[in-house]
Structure formats: structure tokens, C-alpha cells
Amino acid sequence: MQVFDGALLQFLLANKLTELVFQGEFGLEKENLRVDEEGRLALTPHPDELGHKLKNPYITTDFSESQVEMVTPVCGSIEEAYDFLNNLDGIIALALKGEYLWPQSNPPVLPKEEEIPVADFGPEGSEQTAYRKNLAVKYGKKKQLFSGIHYNFSFSEQLLRKLQQKFAPEEPFLEFKNRIYLRVAKNYLQYRWLLIYLTGASPVVHRTFSSDLTGLCRRADSESCYCPRLSSVRNSKYGYKNTEDYLVSYDSIESYIADIQALIDAGKIQDAREFYCPVRLKTGRKAGTLNHLKDEGVRYVELRIFDLNPFAKCGITLDDLYLIHLFIVYSLLKPDFDFTGKRQKIANLNHNLASVAGMHERALIFTVDGRLTSFRREALSVLDELGELVARLGYKKEYLTGIVAAARDKITNPENTYAAKVVKAVKESGYVGFHMQKAREYLALSRAAEAKLLGYEDLELSTQILIKSAIKRGIYFTVLDRKDNFLRLSDGKKTEYVKQATKTSLDTYSTVLVMENKVVTKEILKEHGFRVPRGEVYYSAEDAIKAYDRYRGGGIVVKPKSTNYGLGITIFKTDFSAGEYGQAVEFAFRYDDTVLVEEFVSGKEYRFLVLGGEVAAVIHRVPANVTGDGKKTIRELVAEKNADPRRGRGHKTPLEKISLGETEKNFLAAQGKSFSYIPAPGETVFLRENSNISTGGDSIDYTDLVHESYKEYVKRAVRSIGAVITGVDVIIDDVTKPHSDNCTIIELNFNPAIHMHCFPYKGKKRRIGDKILDLLFGPR
Amino acid sequence: MQVFDGALLQFLLANKLTELVFQGEFGLEKENLRVDEEGRLALTPHPDELGHKLKNPYITTDFSESQVEMVTPVCGSIEEAYDFLNNLDGIIALALKGEYLWPQSNPPVLPKEEEIPVADFGPEGSEQTAYRKNLAVKYGKKKQLFSGIHYNFSFSEQLLRKLQQKFAPEEPFLEFKNRIYLRVAKNYLQYRWLLIYLTGASPVVHRTFSSDLTGLCRRADSESCYCPRLSSVRNSKYGYKNTEDYLVSYDSIESYIADIQALIDAGKIQDAREFYCPVRLKTGRKAGTLNHLKDEGVRYVELRIFDLNPFAKCGITLDDLYLIHLFIVYSLLKPDFDFTGKRQKIANLNHNLASVAGMHERALIFTVDGRLTSFRREALSVLDELGELVARLGYKKEYLTGIVAAARDKITNPENTYAAKVVKAVKESGYVGFHMQKAREYLALSRAAEAKLLGYEDLELSTQILIKSAIKRGIYFTVLDRKDNFLRLSDGKKTEYVKQATKTSLDTYSTVLVMENKVVTKEILKEHGFRVPRGEVYYSAEDAIKAYDRYRGGGIVVKPKSTNYGLGITIFKTDFSAGEYGQAVEFAFRYDDTVLVEEFVSGKEYRFLVLGGEVAAVIHRVPANVTGDGKKTIRELVAEKNADPRRGRGHKTPLEKISLGETEKNFLAAQGKSFSYIPAPGETVFLRENSNISTGGDSIDYTDLVHESYKEYVKRAVRSIGAVITGVDVIIDDVTKPHSDNCTIIELNFNPAIHMHCFPYKGKKRRIGDKILDLLFGPR
After folding, report:
1. Alpha carbon of B652: minimum distance to chain A alpha carbons (Å)
2. Rounded mean pLDDT of chain A?
């Protein structure tokens, strides 16, 4: 027998399709049980914050109310799917209150069978609830708690078209495609035992799980029972399987469908969902039926045998995802064959053998034609073929060769398998002890990565935050334009377009234009009785310079009409010469053809973020600064402060790095200092006049510290402009004292960044992404 | 007696306040009767298009339904008020259908007394209607039809404050200000006879007006009667006056108010409005009462003696406005005095003498202390004083000296007065003939100036158009930022902010952002099944250039993601070389960091202007072009075409001038032509590829020529984006044939200019300003 389908391999090589054969679409699903501090199954309801189980496309529950299921969207690459799964894992972990994601496929400490909560889908999901109740009766609730990872894959349409044109030009494309996926399914089923061995990570069960398993467990302590030669209880006959191994035809999609239908008709399973085959042929639909499969054909395969890997934060490693992918390509390139009942039975036997006995020194396995042989020899032989495939296709050769080598190592050294490592760790720390230690470690990692959305780090942090909130709540999102931070959000009923997190449909265009024009904003605020800096507008430097006499003697601010990030602004806190004034005017006119000269208002500046008529957050911004220790120079102190991972460039991190540029140099020079100056211990040195976060300023949350009267004042000011989302810059002497006339409104920002409120330098984090979604889609 | 108040004059000169004394606020009101083609009083209702009589702050009716009254807002200068009056006059003239504005204070051909329609203010204005019905009974309807101009003026607050500080530091400011205006009123009343003579222009009445006047009229023909020594019937005892000359005290505002109140209490007048004094002391309120005057003091004076000048399009010349202004300043600087009953009677006698007999060779007039003297001598003596004032104050010296000289000429040469000229013209052309000739001439001037709003020519034409519509309909407007074309509009209930005519509150910010981003717009349109050009997005020139093979062989368009006015775009209608393609890509990347390469779609391009779900207008834009005569060069033909007053620069005219720049030169070179090429008779030569109006293209209205099916298609596309105001660029093969799949949407513009639809190069003008207001404020 041929190792590979020679014609196919030849065609791929000849037409340089070796890269294309690895391309396709990827999706991952993962279940985790929620547990309390002691590793006991959480009996609380699925958190409200995670949206509606039936409607959230990313987060739902599986069998049990405590069984969170995460679902990535269809992704263009393995990395993308992996990142997304990590994001989901982090978002959910951080949404739990005093609970953890159990990082093991086998259940945690369980209550009595009857206390295990079956997922409640409410009145809209009564069919879903009823289905689960039937399963509970048929299989027992405990077995339903096994959790794992599903791996979804489809080949690129382009590849399939090319193959069809070459090998079956007369055949309808749909039929050809079905045939390809059936072939992949067959080879995959035949060789799956190897993947079970390599990815199995559920060798230990807690005593509360079952006494039935004791026969399997050679060793036991007071807490759990385990077996050193066991890879995966979940995949074994003790795992979650149909009551018997049903055989169906893989000859054609029609016979496949007919056989499953026969099982349903015979009352053996409720519907196709209950056919727990290690691979499923799926349509593109969320709730695709056998009829859809018949009409629309196979859209992708779902591989269902992967345990949660407790050593990986998100339950699976990137290398294993590549290994599985390679295995799919292998399943395509292995020759097609007749998957007879006998062969299926052999494959099923092997499935169980790999689960329960693969690690035994003298473990056996059946060859495809039914001879018993050495597990290790047979495994290494398959791995040889995988290695040969990698060599011939040449795609990511070194990387994939490494992965094959690692797999070989797990065959020859079973102690390097996940399962063996789990047993070792459980022996050292206990079943609950080990897994809770991992659960806590992963929660800490999720916390540390809170200000990041993997795979979306090129977007502004404010947009990343909004996407995270959308995922959590189950708002479907699409990034329409990455450079523009342009999102489409949809809850299935309503579609919203959002740019840079706060440019939304909530504000009318004219309201934004009013805010964009500082002159107009001031005019309206003044008319409505709000205090704004007095000042004049100039259309030429000449006119502005002529007016020097009007301003001399006091503090002033000279600024372009439409400034961004403090560009072009000069502040004179006290008196200034005609020359200085002239320079400031010329400087401002470099940024705009209209310039404002305003009185300088002393006091501290606060940013009030107003959302839908409410003050959602207040921060005080402090200009870029360092505090001395008597030893380090300003240059060194800046480098130290910039090392904080929260500081970056371009609004992609909570804070920005402090620059050591011309502006900072001049500002220090005015204080008689340079970058080499060594501040005394505790001495704070400012490097800029302006307090923008974008120029290295610090953000300090004041939301709960600001006297209510200022919030009322600001809210009224915002109402007079009619804005729904706005950032109001206000100068206040002392925010703790009630408002008198000591409060001046500097400007309204139509595109306020939200990241500085979500991740302030100091003070409480505010959940602004959630609030924006509440405004766009109504409260949850 | 002193000629001037020496202390005051000295103070002004010493403190360089001579310019400030001329500053202040100006307002004009003008009435015109509407007439039909034959000069008969129009019996039609006040046009709907001019909004609600009670609510329109700019346009209303006076006594009669046929008597349009125009009211300028408070203006900062004479020129501004004059321009605004001209605008109002033009707007109204163009809103009349087959009717004209009667350019004479004396009525046109009148129907029977009972047929003259009294203004009907509807249920909301029943008090207004009742007041007029009482007047009709008391004075007769015909006299109520005299029309004229009111001149409103207030001194600058700054001047009044300075005068108070100097001359009455202890006196409350309000009292001081009242005293100043009373003094101005007294001097004005005392010398008003001179202004009546100089501005009088109503010496002739039509026979249908009255038989009572015949005693006055020395000459008469079958149509009218007139008198060569008569200046103003309207101001004479035959004009519209109280039934007797009521004398009131001018000693203080309290005694002034008390005396008017006594007249009301005695039933002699209905209320203060009916006290027809040649000057009124007014509060700032629209319907100020005597109580308001007491509490708030005088805000401005209203001078009421000015006839419509049939020789000026808007009823008064700029020179006369300056003359009157000078007269007010004169009234301030003449010493204060006790305006006794005797003196008031003398002033009233002089008022009538100037109206009915001023032009007589031996006309007499009373001196202020009651001696009869030569009209001419006394008039020249007052003019001498005015001349002296001009000389001493030095403000606009030459200009005002010229105006005083012109006034002297009218004294010494009465045939140069308006009145004498009217008599002459009526003799030549008849009363109706002369005035209708003027009415027609002025309508033609209004038509010619339709694409202009005087005093606002620095704004974009689209904004000028919107303001015109607002004025017409009575939406109060403020230009908040001229450079930004930023308007505030208010109907009293609702305030709207509008930038550049089409940036409004009607669209949400996110809808605008979708339209602004060509990639996102295309994506959404495509998803909704609309035909858009196929293409790809590139973020680097390198990637775009690599894709050459994908595009070669067909026509393509290379363009920056966010283009304006066709900048950075290259079009290849057929095949192109790798070099040409590379250049086009580099060129586009100069304008944006994202570039689109799209298929070139052939056909004609149309701009559909969609407003509130309806297609308001469609134009076809033709690239800049000239058509030859076999003699002139392209350069000459362009100069000729650019001479059209409709062509200008910077969107301030209906069309833009064609440039002879690099782009045009290269485009011609590609056709083997230069600017010196002489096109054959009838040969049309294009100077650009792109058809934007901003680069000299021609706009041709197609609104009624486009097959309905395209309008439906475009409307549906706009709905899918959710835009309320948008300009949709569409390529269509043949707009007269029903829509099939021959229609491609190129882009949606969130800020479509409206001027090209209102004033197309060819085809019907569309009233887009009105439609935008309908959307913003609801239909009239």
C-alpha cells in the first residue's frame, strides 16, 4: 500500500500548492468548569456579565450551568484562533467573582449528582434545557461534566477548487468537497489513537467523581485515583461516550446521513448532536441539521478528542494546534480507503487502548488491518510518515519537524507526556491542590494581560477595550478597518459602527462639529452661563500680535483653534514679553489658520468622561514627571519609569513613554536643569507643561473623590451642547470643596480616549467599554 | 447760542473718540406693496414660501396683507444693514409669482376701499388682526398703504459709558442713556424737515388713491396727480399721521411715558404703537410696551420719515443711510434744550412745509424760535453746520463731505431731488409705467444676483444658499464661524448647528465616518447586494506594486482611501505598463497611507443628491472643457469661459474657473495638444480626466431625465448605509433606460455641495436650501 496518495502529492508539488494545502479556516471551542476557592464545582448561575447564553456567539454554557464554553470565531490562521481562545479565557476568568476556571478535563470536587446544576437556558431555550435533562437521565450528570477542546478546520476553497478541476472535473463541486472531507474523517479516525496519546491529559479523577473507575485506577490516595499508564479518562470507555460505539457509513455523505438518521429513528440518540463521534462533519450553520448537511454539504470538520492541558493557560499549546493541523493534512494525503465496519471497530479499540494503556512499556495497538503490534513501534512509524510529509511539503519545515520530534520523544519517553506530568504533579500537590495552583496562576496571568487583546495589539487600546467588552457580552464584532480602528458591532438585531471606541451613532454629526470647533463650543457654553476662559479669536498673526497690550500683565494661553494632543499651545502663567508673545502666536499659527488667545486659568485640570448624561469617570492628569532618589539622573529616572509595561507608544498601552525631546529639554532648561540633573530624594521634576497622557503624563482616577456638585455642573454643560459621549476638560481649584465659581470649562472632546480611565496610572479602574455598549445596545 | 455742545465735542476730540461716536448698531425696516403686472395692488395672500408672518423675524406684513415688511437684524455697520436689506429685497422679489415689489411709498393702482385686504395673522395673531381692523376704520385703509423705511440706531455702549463717566459720574447709567437718546430725539425732531426734503420721493399719487388730494395737486393727468414743489405726500398732512399732532414731554423718560399713557387713557390712540411720531424711543424687545421702556430704558431710536426711493433697488441709497447717520451724530452734538410745546409745534409745521412746499423757489421755513425765513437759506445753514461737524470730527471726512455737498446741491437745485425726478419720470412714462419699469428692472437685478448673498460672499456658496432659504422662511441664523461656514439656525423652538450646509444633526457621527471611509462604504454596499467596483486595499506601495499582474490588461482606478476633489487619483481606462502603474501607486500614497486599486467602470458619472430618503437632484458632471470656433486657442477659449460671472474660486460661485496648470497641460499633451492648439469649430476638448466641479467641470441637471429605477436603486443603497444627507456618485451607461446591472456606485459623499444643483451650468435650478430646512425643521 502506498504511504501517500502519490497523484495528489505530485499535483501539489508540481503546482506549488504546498503552502495552500496548509491554509484554511480555524476555530476552537473549549469548555471549563467553574470552581470555587476550594476546587468545588460552582453552583452559582452563569455570570450575567457574560451576556445571554443563547445569544453570545463567543461565550455560552455546555451541559452544566457551571460549564463555560468558549467559541472562537472562524479565523484565518492557527495563531489567530489561539490568540482569540486566550482572550476568551482571560475575559471569562476576570469576569468570575471569587471563582476559577478548572484547568482539567476531569471534573473537580463534585456535589451529589442531584445538586449538579444543568444549564438553564430560560424560556427562550426550553428545547436546549430539555435536551440536557434527557442526557442527564441517560448518561448521568457527572459524565457530562468532562470538558475538552474542539478543533474546527476547513481547507481553503481555492485548494478544493483546484483539486476538483484536476481530479474530478465532471463532479459537482459540492460532492467532491464532501468526498474530500469524508476521506479526511476516515484517515483521522483510523489514526486518532496517536493524537489521543499525545494530547491526553486526564489521567486522574477525584473520588467524588465516581467509584466505578476504581477498577481502572491502580493507585489511589484519599483524594483521587489515577493510573500511570493512562492518558485520558475522558477519551476512555469511562469517559463521555455513546452507550455503544455506533458504526456509520463513510462511503458517501448520503449513506453517512442515512445511518445517523437510522440511529435517531431507532431511538438510540435524540438527534445528530448526540452522535458522539471523535470527528463531526459540519455545515456552516450554528444549528445545522442532517438536512442542512445534505443540501449544503460539509463546510468543515470538528475534531473532538482533545483534553484540556493543565500546563497551558488556555488548555492547549500552540505546538499541539500545529500538530493537529499537520495530522489533518496527513489525513488528506493518506490514500482513500473503504472504512469497513471491521476497520471502524479496530479504530475504536485503538482509541480506547491509547486512552487507557498507551503509556505502558509493553503497550499494544492494532495495525489498520487488525494485527496486534507494539504501540510504540506503530506510533513511531506514523510519526515517520508525518515527518516525511513535512519534509516533502516543505511548509514551515523546521518548526513542524521540531513538533514531530517532540511527539517522538513522548512516545519513547512516556514520562514526558502531559498525562504523566499530571500524575506527577498530583502526587506532589494533590488533585485539587495542583489544579487550583494552576487555576490561580492562570488568573494572575489573565490579570496581568488585562490591558491587551491578543491579535489586536495594532489597534488603539481604547478599541481593544471596547472589543473585549463586546466579546464578554456577546456582541458580534468585525474590524472593518484596522488602521482606522473601525468596528462593526451587532447583537443580531441592531448594527452599530464605531470608530476609535467613542465615535459612534450616539452623537449627531453637528454635535461633533460643535465640539471640534473650540470657538463655537466656548460661545455656546458662555451663552448658557458656563464659565469658560475669556479670550479672542485671531485669523492672522499680525492681528494677534497687535493685541499684545490687551493681554500683557496676566497669564495667557495661546493655542490653535483645532488642537490635538496639545500641539501648538503656549502657556504663560504670569507676565510675558512682546517677543515671547509674538513667538507663541507664530507657533500656534503653524498649526491652524485660526488662533485663540485666552486668559490662563490656574488650578488643576480634570477630565470628566460623560457618557449618556452621566459622569462615567474623572481623572486628573499630571504632566510627564519623575521623582528623584538622590542618585539617578533625570535621564535614568525616565528610562526606569518608561520600563513599566503599561507605557508604550501610539495609544496602544495605558500610558505613553516619556520622551526626552526638544520640548522636554527646553522645559527643563527653563528650570535650570538638564537630563543629567540628579533630583533629590522625593523631589518631583516635571518634564512638560501640558498634562496629556499622550506626552507621557500620568492619569490618576478621581471619580469618587470629586465633589458631586462639579459632576452636576459638567453634566449641565454637556447637555447645553447636546453631546452623548464627550470628555470635558475642567480646571478646578479644589475638587473636594463644593462648586462655587471656581470651575472653568476648557474644552469638550468629541473623541475621548477611554483607556486612561480603564487603566489609570493610579486609582480605580473603570469599566468604560461596558458602559459604551450599554449606551449603544441598551443595558444587559 | 452755541452751534455745538463744546464740552462734549472737546471731550471726543481730546480722547480720540471721534471714530467711536460713529460706531453703533444699525437696523433697517422697509415696506413694499405687492402688485401685479399692471401695477394693481395684489389681492393674493402673503406667499407661503416666506414663512409665518408672526414668526419670521426678517419678513412679515404690515397693515395690509399685500404690504410686505422686511426687517434686517441688528447690524454692526451701515454697509451690513444695507446689504442685508438688499438681500431681503431680492429674496422676496424672487419668491413672488408673477408679482412685483412696488418701488414707491405712495400706493399703486388700488381697488375699492373695501377690497383692500387687511393682513390676516390667523388664530395665533388675532390681536394683530384686530388692531389693524381698528386702524382701518379710524384712518381709512388707503392711508395705511403708505410705505417707507425705518432707520434704527443705537450708539456703542462703550461710548455711552465713557460719556457718563465724564459728564454724569453720579447718575445711574440707565438714566444717563435715556437722557442722551431724548436729546438726540429732540434735535432730530427739530431739524427733521431738512431730511424730509432731502429724502422725500413721493410727490405723485394715483387717481385711485384719493380725490381729497386734488387740492394739493397743481397738475394732473388721466392717471395721477402731482405737484412740482411737493417732496413727500406720505410725510405731509395728507399722509399717514395721527388725527392731530399730539405733543408729549421730552424732559424725562418718565414724563414722556406719562404723556403717551395719557393719550391712551383718553382713548385717542389704542396703544403706544399708534403714536405716529417721526422718532420712536425703543426698548430691545420685539413688542416692547411703555412699562418695558420705563424698566429697561431706551435701547435705540427708530427714525420713521424716509420715503421709498424709486431710483434705488432696495428703496434707499447707501449715501442717504450715511447722511441720516451723520444727522444722528449732529443731533447728539447739538446742545440740549427745552423742547417746549411751542417748539414742537414749530417743528411740526416745518415738517409739513418741507413735505409739501420745500421745492418752491420762495419756500419758507420757521427758525427754531419761530421766525419765518427762507427755506433754502435755513437749509444751507444747517448743512454748513453738518459740514463743520464732518470737518472737526474727521471721520470718513472726504466721503461725508461729498454727501453734504450733494445735499447742498439738492437745496440749490431742487430739480435734483428724488421728488423732482419722480415727477419728471412720471410725466414721461406715466405713474404706473415708470414705477413698473423700475419694478421689472429691480426684479431682473435680483435674478442676476440670485447666486449671491451680499455681505456673506466669503462663505461657500452652499452656505449662502442655505442662509437665503433660512431668511426666506424666517429661520433665525447666526454665523458662528465664518471660516468654517458654521451656522446656528433656530425657529424659536429648536436650534440646529450646520457646517458647510450639509453637515447637520440629521446624520449620526458614525454614518458620516462610514461614508468618509471608502473601504468601509464599499464593504457595506457589497454586503447589501449593491454593485461597487471590485478592488483591493493596500497599506504599502510595495504590496500594491507587487499586485500588478492581478490588474494588468484591464482598466483600473488607483486612489487614496480618503480623497477630496479627486486628488491623488489616476485612471487607466485601458491597459497600462508596470511603470505607469507604479507611478500611479506612488502618487496615490502621497495623499494617504492606504490606497485602493479598483476596476475602471465605464459609463457616465452622475451625482445623486439624496435628502431624507428622497432623490432631491441629479447632475451629470462633465470634466473641464472648451468647444472650439476654429479661431481661438484653448488658452483663449478657457479665458472666455472663465469670464462667465458664474465661475470663481473656492466654492463661492456656482462653477469654478478652469485652470491652465500642470495637470491640464499633461492631459492635453497626452492628446497631442497644447494650450496653443486651436480646436475646430464645434470640437470639444477636455482639459482633465476627473469631472469635479471644483476643477472647472460643468454641471448639467438630470433630475427629471434619469429613469426612476436608478433613483430607487440609489435610495435603497443610501438606506443600507443609513445616511440622511448624502451625494451618491454613480456610473450609468444610459440613464434613460431602466436599471439592469449597468449601474455601479462609486462612493457616498457625506458633505455634498448643494450649489451645483441650485445653479447648474445647464438645466433646471433646484431649491436644495429649502429642502434641507424642511428636513431640519419640518415642512413649512
Report:
1. 19
2. 93
Cα gap B237→B233, rounded to integer Å: 8
Give the nearest chain B residue to A497 (CA atoms).
Answer: B510
Residue A537 CA: distances (Å) to CA of A72, A544, A558, A595: 53, 8, 10, 6
Q: Is A724 on the interface with B (CB under 8 A)?
A: no
Kindly determine whether residue A480 and residue B504, on different chains, have CB atoms separated by under 8 Å. no
pLDDT in tens, B199-213: 999 999 998 987 655
Closest CA to B182 of B323, B277, B270, B72: B277
- Is A669 within 8 Å of A676 (Cβ atoms)? no
Nearest CA-CA distance, residue A465 and chain B, Å: 19
Q: What's the distance, Cα to Cα, between the start and end of chain A in Å?
A: 60
CB pairs under 8 A between A and B: 86
Rounded to whole angstroms, how far apart are CA atoms B683 and B198? 59
Residue whose entry in the numeric block shows the C-alpha cell 486612561: A756
Report chain A residues whose CB lies below 8 A from the CB of B498: 510
Cell of A489: 458591532
Q: How far is CA A673 from CA A556, B311, B469, in A?
A: 24, 75, 61
Q: Are B613 and B586 in contact (CB under 8 A)?
A: no
- Find, among A350, A335, A323, A313, the residue nearest to A408 by Cα: A323
Give the 3-state secondary structure percentages of chain B, helix then strand then coil, rounded to 5: 40, 20, 40
pLDDT digits (tens, 9 = 90+) for B557-601: 998 887 666 678 888 888 889 999 999 999 999 988 889 999 998
- Note whether B594 contacts A483, CB cutoff 8 Å: yes
Inter-chain residue contact B511 with A517, CB threshold 8 Å: no
Give the torsion through C-alpha atoms of A155, A161, A166, A171, to 10 deg.
Answer: 110
At residue B570, the pLDDT reads: 86
Spatial separation of the C-alpha atoms in residues B679 and A291, rounded to whole Å: 70
Query: Mean pLDDT for chain B?
Result: 93
In single-letter form, the type of residue at position B562 comes to S
Amino acid at A495: T
**A773 touching chain B per CB within 8 A:** no
Interface check A126 vs B, CB under 8 A: no
Of A505, A517, A594, Cβ closest to residue B509? A505
Most confident of A27-31, B123-127, B547-551: A27-31
The percentage of chain B sitting over the pLDDT mark of 90, rounded to a whole number, equals 79
Helix (H) or strand (E) holding B520: helix B518-527
pLDDT tens-digit series, residues A39-74: 999 999 999 999 998 899 999 998 899 999 999 999
Does residue B512 sit in helix, strand or coil?
helix
Are B519 and A594 within 8 A, CB to CB?
no
Beta pairing partners, A279: A303
| A318 part of contact set with chain B, CB < 8 Å | no
Tell me the three cell numbers of residue B305: 420719515
Does A476 contact B at CB distance below 8 Å? no
**Distance between CA B451 and CA A285 in Å, rounded?**
59
Tell me whether residues A497 and B481 touch, CB distance under 8 A. Answer: no
The residue of chain A nearest to residue B481, with distances taken between CA atoms, is A520
For residue B2, the Cα-to-chain-centroid distance in whole angstroms is: 43
User: SS3 string of A95-109?
Assistant: HCCCCEECCCCCCCE
Whole-number pLDDT of residue A319: 97
Residue A631 contacts residue A574 (beta carbons within 8 Å): no
Asked if A507 and B512 come within 8 Å (Cβ–Cβ), the reply is no
- Classify residue A215 as exposed, middle or buried by CB count within 10 Å of its CB (0-12, 13-18, 19+): exposed
Can you give B165-233 as a three-state secondary structure string?
HHHCCCCCHHHHHHHHHHHHHHHHHHHHHHHHHHHCCECEEECCCCCHHHHCCCEECCCEEECCCCCEC
The ipTM of this complex is 0.89
Q: Do B486 and A512 touch (CB under 8 A)?
A: no
